[in-house]
Amino acid sequence: MSRTVYVNGEFVAEENAQISVFDRGFLFADAVYEVSSVIEGKLLDNDRHLARLRRSLGELNIPSPASDETITGVQKELIKRNELVEGAVYMQVTRGAADRDFAFPANAVPGMVLFTQAKQLRDSPQARDGIAVVTMPDIRWKRRDIKTVGLLAQSMAKQAALDAGATDAWMVEDGFVTEGSSNNAFIVDKNGCIITRQLGNDILHGITRASVLKLTQQHNIALEERAFTVAEALDAQEAFLTSASTFVWPVISIDGHPIGDGKPGAVAGRLRELYIETALQGAV
Ligand code: PDD
Question: Is ligand 1 within 6 A of the CB of residue 196?
Answer without folding.
Answer: no
